[in-house]
Design brief:
Oligomer: single chain
Low-confidence stretches: 1-8, 130-153
Order of helices and strands: HHHHHHHEEHHHHH
Structural class: mainly alpha
Strand order of the largest sheet: 1-2
Largest sheet: 2 strands, antiparallel
CATH architecture of the largest domain: Orthogonal Bundle
Strand content: 5-15%
Radius of gyration: 46 Å
CATH class of the largest domain: Mainly Alpha
Number of helices: 12
Number of strands: 2
Length: about 325
């Protein structure tokens, strides 16, 4: 609010009030600070109104009131309007000037007693004993996006020292699965050899536990068992692409062969492969034709393993057809 001890310029033509205000301002009187700020605000408002008038001149070209006399009186009216605006503090500029030039005019905030900051019925909270042992936190938890394979560790993961140990270990399971499928066990062992790098690259879980997945069968939506995630190389339009996929996990090698048999027999696209009987080469060729793997050399690589002399020698020792 304006200080009433200062003679205020109540209108644009109140030259006496403006002159007294000028004298007060020169004396650096705090009493005149508010009125000086108001007058400055009125000057700013005048410039705003003048800018708006100029922006509308283009629309008043053909108006009968567009003449020098009308503009003269309009200009006086605008300046009086600016003065009234400043007296009511509509823009807030005067208040900002007063706070800037005289910080002592700002009312200091009242201090609040500490007891008033405490909530009503506040009860003292119990203190924690920092020396009390806290429960251990497990930092190496498995990836929560993939089901844990802890239940898939009922049997110890096999260790294959060489190709012979790989063939000797898998041969009993391969014979059983091949008999159920009506195919040659040679094809199954050779396929598992290619898929796992002779047992050296069986997919492991995040806890480095074996998935026992010998044929790298992926976990589709119908799979209800355990699974592990792994990056694999897929061939798409002749180009190798790295993909993150979920693969099935088993409790043992026996479960891996059993699920492989179910996977081949329940998927109709592999019926052509089953119709090849014990012809191992034709069986593998039909698997690739049906889309078992994206590698265009998949069948040739497996057939190359089956034709290897060492492979055939070990199978002969194990009486593959027995």
């Amino acid at each position: 609010m304006a200080n009433q001890t200062v003679t205020q310029a109540s209108n644009y033509f109140d030259l006496q009030g403006l002159d007294q205000l000028r004298q007060k301002a020169q004396s650096n009187s705090k009493e005149s600070l508010r009125e000086v700020a108001n007058q400055f605000e009125s000057m700013f408002a005048t410039m705003l109104i003048k800018s708006m008038r100029q922006a509308n001149e283009a629309f008043e070209t053909d108006s009968p009131f567009n003449n020098q006399q009308t503009k003269f009186y309009t200009d006086m009216q605008d300046k009086q309007l600016a003065l009234d605006i400043s007296r009511h503090g509509s823009l807030g500029l005067a208040d900002a000037l007063v706070r800037q030039l005289d910080p002592s005019s700002i009312a200091a905030p009242k201090s609040v007693p500490l007891e008033q900051l405490t909530m009503a019925n506040n009860k003292q909270q119990p203190m924690f004993d920092l020396e009390k042992a806290l429960p251990a936190i497990e930092l190496n938890k498995p990836d929560q996006t993939v089901a844990s394979t802890s239940s898939a560790q009922a049997n110890k993961a096999p260790v294959f020292t060489d190709k012979k140990s790989f063939i000797d270990t898998l041969l009993p399971y391969a014979k059983k699965a091949a008999q159920a499928l009506g195919v040659s066990p040679v094809a199954l062992i050779a396929q598992a050899a290619l898929e796992t790098g002779w047992g050296k690259k069986i997919i492991n879980s995040a806890e480095k536990q074996s998935s026992f997945n010998l044929f790298n069968i992926k976990a589709n939506k119908s799979w209800q068992g355990e699974q592990v995630a792994k990056d694999s190389l897929e061939v798409e339009e002749g180009v190798g692409v790295k993909r993150r996929s979920n693969f099935r996990a088993y409790n043992s090698l026996a479960e891996s062969f059993a699920d492989y048999g179910d996977f081949i027999t329940t998927n109709k696209r592999y019926q052509g492969a089953l119709q090849q009987g014990t012809n191992a080469h034709r069986y593998i060729e039909e698997l690739q034709q049906a889309g078992y793997a994206t590698d265009p050399q998949y069948a040739d690589k497996i057939k190359e393993i089956m034709l290897n002399e060492e492979f055939q020698a070990v199978l002969a020792e194990g009486n593959v057809n027995g």
